[in-house]
Amino acid sequence: MLVHSRPARRxxxxxxxxxxxPVFALPLxxxxxxxxxxxxxxxxxxxxxxxxxxxIAHGEALHALLTSVLTALAAxxxxxxxxxxxxxxxxxxxxxxxxxxxxxxxxxxxxxSVVVGLSLLVAFSRPPFLLNGTPQIVIxxxxxxxxxxxxxxxxxxxxxxxxxxxxxxxxxxxxxxxxLWRVKLPLLLPSLTAAAGLCFALxxxxxxxxxxLYPPDWLxxxxxxxxxxxxxxxxxxxxxxxxxxAATLLVLLGVSRIRTKASYR
Length: 265
What we know:
The protein is mostly helical. The protein has helices spanning 6-35, 51-58, 61-90, 95-110, 113-123, 135-160, 163-171, 176-204, 208-213, 221-230, 234-264, and strands at residues 37-39, 46-48. The longest helix is centred in the last third of the chain and has 31 residues, at 234-264.
């Protein structure tokens, strides 16, 4: 820490807690409390109940959660593949071409996600690329929105990668494909897992583009949360939100364990 004196460090810690708790922690704690509440007549929710979670266990929420997980997994895998491929290819490009490629991948992030959803809706509404009303267009939208994060993560990792490993393997007679699969990608594995976790988390929470594209038989959980809160079922929506957070954190925990093992290796 840049602050060396003990009173100054305490002041920094207190300032951090004062800023962190109201802005980040407290809203999440209120959502968790609301998910177990049956009424909200005072400052905080009250009336403890498990009804909302029982409704989730016996309702359509589990199917919506599975839909969100499958969408996020497919989008993360596609984004990681495309982003890694593009980052590796960008190493061989000139500075101007690389900047153009960077802008291309960052464009979906620079514009509102609802614009991305509308563009895909228009682009794939006619044969031979008719995807409207299918789960594939939702997965495609999520892939477009999160690929930039995978691309940037792998690009940053490549700039920090020591070229001596690659040069040593090539000097020993290894072919480029062998160097890529057995030397370069293993060294990039911690960054790849981090990018996959980020893409998964962003896809799990995506709503704007999904609202424009999802078919009736492919309903992700964020859409169901919006529908529940829109009709006034705030406590049920809070329980759905906690379920979404728990599922996302569980997957991210598994990804972090893979990343830790990859970094140790």
